Amino acid sequence: MVQFFKYWGITFHEAVRGALKSLWRHKLRSGLTLLSILIGVATIIVLVSVINGLNKKIATEFETLGTKVLYVNRFPWVSGGRRWAKFRKNPPITETDLRALKNLPHAEYVVPYLQRGTTVRYRQDEMDITVFGTTWEYPMLRKIDVQMGRFFSYGEDKRGRPVCVIGWEIYHNLFGDEDPIGKWVSLGGINFKVVGVLKRQGRSLTIGTTDDRVFIPYNAFKHNLGGRRGIGIMVSAKSPEDIDELTEEIRYALRGVRGLKFGQEDNFAINSQDMLLDEYKKTTRILWGVLIAIAALSLLVGGIGVMNIMLISVAERTREIGVRKAIGATKAHILSQFLLEALTQCWAGGLLGFIVGVGLPLVVSLVVPQLPVAISWEAVIVAVAFTTAVGVIFGIYPALKAGKLSPVEALRYE
């Protein structure tokens, strides 16, 4: 056993030394070959790391929509390729629809909302924001953290009091270090009293952010900012397992109140975070296809380069092969040496690709914090496996050619 490991240790050492000599003798060709393998390996690691980071970011963002919340809107969030003109004919969601959804068996909360863009002003400073009118129950459905003060109360909501909760960016831009609680701001020319400030959320890749949003009571929105363009309705299930039953209850109630007959299509949309997740997964499948194509092409080019270098190496070392066979080296010994040399060249390119593939995402995440990155060690393992496969596939032919050489013919080779 000791002799076995000693022999293969020496063989591996000789193979590595031979591979490095071969790379050094053909610098340009070797450089292009290593570059191709580097690009293939780095592409796999970088793209998988970016996709994993995006997956985690998107999953976290979609969680804020609520895992057991359905959204009743005039239009679907995802059209599925159907013509948008068809959905424009849908009538707006109204308070008649809202009343029809009250007291559904599987519904826990039914919360209406309105939103529009406007300007918020404090003293001489102002900024463009989105004002969101909803009820006091909103924090029960959506993940929302109040950093200062509080969210508006049931009484303020029902009486339509002019109070508001502002996003962190609004607080930072308009108030600076000043305490905003109890101060009055102007929303579209109407004064509202600040009762709370939301915790900083940061920029979102998909569903927007609360940092530049102002929340006011639903009735205050209707009375002061208008609500004739239709509303949206959030309906939460009593448990995630009730989502399917609740969807059917909502559909049945709305079809009834809207007078839709059997066979007529729904003229409303029931949206959920799962729809967005499914659409996102379709998009990432396209990215995976691009990743595989780029990596495969790069590794193919690198593999062809490795095979060319090894064929040249076999031709240059024909007499050496003859001498080794003459003193007892078997076909398996010669084959294994040249195959190890091919693998060494691929692993050299793979090592460089690993360094670039791990380093580049870390640099990108520092330069562009909005682009999340999560290093995937599974991708590193896959890249190493691909690199090894390329070494074996494209190294086996030159190795077999070397192993089949006749000692007599090899010694006579000039």
Structure report:
The chain has 414 residues and is α+β, with helices and mostly antiparallel strands. It folds into 2 domains: 2-61 and 277-411, no CATH class; 69-271, no CATH class. Helix content is 56%, strand content 16%. The protein contains 14 helices and 10 strands. The chain has helices at residues 2-25, 27-63, 84-88, 95-100, 138-141, 154-158, 168-175, 218-224, 243-257, 273-316, 318-326, 331-367, 377-403, 407-411; strands spanning 69-73, 107-122, 125-134, 146-149, 163-166, 184-187, 190-198, 213-217, 232-237, 269-271. Strands 2-3-8-5-7-6 form a 6-stranded mixed β-barrel. Strand 6 and strand 7 (190-198) form a beta hairpin. Helix 2 (27-63) runs antiparallel to helix 13 and helix 10 runs parallel beside helix 13. The longest helix has 44 residues, at 273-316. The chain is elongated and about 100 Å long. The two termini are 39 Å apart. The model has no long low-confidence stretch (mean pLDDT 79).
Question: Topology, pairings included?
Answer:
Elements: H1 2-25, H2 27-63, E1 69-73, H3 84-88, H4 95-100, E2 107-122, E3 125-134, H5 138-141, E4 146-149, H6 154-158, E5 163-166, H7 168-175, E6 184-187, E7 190-198, E8 213-217, H8 218-224, E9 232-237, H9 243-257, E10 269-271, H10 273-316, H11 318-326, H12 331-367, H13 377-403, H14 407-411
Parallel strand pairs: 3-8, 5-7
Antiparallel strand pairs: 1-9, 1-10, 2-3, 2-6, 2-9, 4-7, 5-8, 6-7
